[in-house]
Description:
The chain is mostly helical. Helix content is about 35%, strand content about 0%.
Amino acid sequence: MAASSLAAAPLAAQDAQPGKADYDRWCAGCHGVDGKGEGPGAPMMMPRPRDFTTGRYQIRSTPSGALPTDADLTRVILDGMPGTAMPGWRDHFGDREVQDLVAYLQSFSPFFESQPAPEAVETASAPGVDEAALAEGREFYEKIECNKCHGEAGRGDGPSAPTLEDDDDRPVRAADLTENWFFNGGGSVEEIHERLVTGLNGTPMPSFQDLIAAEFMTEEQLWHVAQYVRSLAPEDPPVVREVVRAGRVEGELPASVDA
Length: 259
């Protein structure tokens, strides 16, 4: 009896790990019980769910290639990632539950223990925006070749778009910049600028911070690119104003639009 109790103790301790129960109930269906992004729902999703074991995270405030901060992980849990299957859980989890989930997600990758605590990139505040700023943003949009993936009009139809793959050789879409409400890191000027600074780890989207270091462009000019990208989408996202209800038709469908 004593030996049996001792053998069960490690398993009970593992099951009691904070965050595990919520993860297994709400997250494992997509991300898998082992955090590898291979849950039963994963094959039906594009992009695929995050593989937490790699330590690669797209939405971060940290430099390219770096781990996310606790605040970064918290933000994605609460707000989700628009344009993907990842929902926001702001109305579902309390502060303590989110903290436990963050710690549990980090436990899937050894990098969170072996590397120093990540720090957010510090940047200057956004400059003012006017027609001249947007024109310069458009100029650098082409100079840094955003149009190669996102297209001349920002519709995600650039010449490189059909060939894009992530680091796991899976196809990925270039964002349609005219629909900022689907940006998985947020569609404000500040959030767009953050993506330009940090890049999206694991995807073809690079960081442009090195171009500032090389004096190819200034930090203000990168802000102007963010402002230009934001200008490609409407001020407010579309809303459902009217629902048209159609009756079920049995047999041959009408051939006329006036039917």
